[in-house]
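#help-structures

NK: newbie question. if I give both the sequence and a SMILES, will the prediction place the ligand too? trying with ribose-5-phosphate
OV: yes, paste both and it writes out the complex. here, I ran yours:
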Amino acid sequence: MTQDEMKRAAAEAALAYVEEKTVIGVGTGSTANHFIDLLAEKRIPLEGTVASSVATAERLKGHGYKILELNQTGPLSLYVDGADESDPRLNLIKGGGGALTREKIVAAASDKFVCIADESKLVDVLGDFPLPIEVIPMAQSYVAREMVKLGGNPSLRLDYITDNGNIILDVSGLHIVDPVTLEREINQITGVVTVGLFAARPADVLILGAPGGAQVVTA
Ligand SMILES: O=C[C@H](O)[C@H](O)[C@H](O)COP(=O)(O)O
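OV: that's the protein plus ligand as structure tokens.
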């Protein structure tokens, strides 16, 4: 089974959490794309969707799904999205695709967050994947210096601007044993829009695609 097939297997298992004719939140990335395509292939009717990125909105629209603004919907019952890393407590690193801010907003507004990933994304301790941070452009150097003080090695994501008009710093070298505290500390740095650590609001369910099929992990 390839990594992509494992992503698709996880996405397919997430369909079990979708209630027809509801409004759901939909994440961004290659695993979320499988989920979107499977919703359409299985002809699952939805009242609407809240997209976590422009790219996801375009893909959903291409399949005929209605896009709603989060400000119109109130709380969502379900959010489905991928991740770059998960620890066993379902704390996540997200933002490899740059969509972390809108993803974190939709996750925060959702009752249940189902994370879908291939099995390689489950790690003991977060941090091998460089931690993405969305930053207001004029704060780039300041935030980078603050991240060095926290033990990280920041690097600017080149030729990339987020859907919100900001830059991304990818911070390597972190061994994140206390993700809740680190998320809070980074959130306090002036100029940080969002850190791609999802620990104050982790996933509720992690579905891992693996050669033997999809496995459901709960914290
Ligand atoms: O910004 C992107 C998102 O956080 C993605 O969910 C994450 O990067 C995982 O992407 P993929 O499903 O392509 O591995």
